[in-house]
Design a protein that fits this description.
Helix content: 40-55%
Strand order of the largest sheet: 1-8-3-6
Oligomer: single chain
Largest sheet: 4 strands, antiparallel
Distance between the termini: 38 Å
CATH topology of the largest domain: Jelly Rolls
Order of helices and strands: HHEEEEEEEEHHHEHHEEH
Number of domains: 2
Structural class: alpha+beta
Radius of gyration: 19 Å
Strand content: 15-25%
Number of helices: 8
CATH architecture of the largest domain: Sandwich
CATH superfamily of the largest domain: Jelly Rolls
Number of strands: 11
Shape: elongated
C-alpha cells in the first residue's frame, strides 16, 4: 500500500496540497530498538507507519520505562515531531518495537496543512484526544489494577497482535511496557507457570491456558 492510500485524509486534500505533501514525504527504515524521539533525540518529522510497530512512553530518572500506547501500520505518530503539540510539558520516548518502515512528513509541511485545511486540523485534534484517552486508560490501570492483572492482559493482547500463543519477548521488555522491574515480572511469570498458565524458555513465553489468563485479567 502506498502513501496516498495510507494517509488518512488524502482524498480531502486539494490537488496542490497533495502535490506538496507527496513531494515532501520520505521513506525511512529503522531497526528494532531504534529511538526515534527522546529528550536527547529531537525529531522534526511526523511518522506514518508503513510496516512494523512503535511504542510511545515515558522514562524515569532511574531509566525505568512505561509504555503509554503503541502504534501499528497505518497509524500516524504526532509525538515523533517535537513541537507539534506546543502545550506538551513532558518528554515522550518513541521507540521501534520491531523493524519498521516509516513515511516521514516534515513538521512544517504538516503544520501548513493544518493551517490550510479544517479537515486536517480537526483530524489532528481528534487524534490528540484519542491518544490522551489511551494515556488516561493506562494511568487508571497503573493506579487501580494489580500487576498480575496487567501482566495477564498484556500477554493476552500480545497473542492477538502476534497471532500466536508463542511470544518471543523477554521479561525485561514486559517490565518496560508495564513500568516495573524485571525481577517483579519474573516472579509473576513463575507463578503463572506454576499455575499451568504459561511455559517459558529463554526469550519465549507460550500461553497454554488462555482461559486461565483471562480469569486473572478479569
Amino acid at each position: 500500500m502506498g502513501f496516498q492510500e495510507s494517509f488518512p485524509l488524502w482524498d480531502r486534500l486539494q490537488p496542490d496540497q497533495q502535490h506538496r505533501l507527496i513531494e515532501a514525504v520520505g521513506l525511512r527504515s529503522v531497526k528494532k530498538g531504534t529511538v526515534l524521539r527522546d529528550a536527547h533525540t529531537p525529531c522534526g518529522d511526523l511518522c506514518l507507519i508503513r510496516t512494523g510497530r512503535l511504542s510511545a512512553g515515558l522514562i524515569s530518572d532511574e531509566g525505568r520505562e512505561f509504555t503509554l500506547y503503541r502504534l501499528f501500520a497505518g497509524d500516524l505518530c504526532l509525538f515523533c515531531a517535537s513541537g507539534i503539540i506546543p502545550t506538551l510539558r513532558f518528554e515522550i520516548i518513541v521507540r521501534a518495537e520491531t523493524d519498521a518502515t516509516l513515511w516521514r512528513i516534515p513538521k512544517r509541511h504538516y503544520q501548513s496543512l493544518m493551517a490550510e485545511s479544517a479537515a486536517v486540523a480537526n483530524f489532528t485534534n481528534e487524534l490528540i484526544a484519542s491518544r490522551f484517552t489511551e494515556v488516561m486508560g493506562r494511568i487508571e490501570q497503573l493506579m487501580w489494577q494489580g500487576l498480575d492483572r496487567r501482566v495477564a492482559a498484556f500477554l493476552l493482547r500480545e497473542t492477538e497482535i502476534e497471532g500466536s500463543a508463542e511470544l518471543r519477548i523477554t521479561h525485561e521488555a514486559i517490565a518496560h511496557h508495564l513500568g516495573t522491574q524485571r525481577e517483579v515480572i519474573s516472579r509473576l511469570l513463575s507463578g503463572f507457570r506454576d499455575a499451568g498458565l504459561v511455559t517459558m524458555t529463554r526469550g519465549r513465553i507460550t500461553i497454554v491456558n488462555k482461559g486461565g489468563l483471562e480469569a486473572v485479567r478479569a
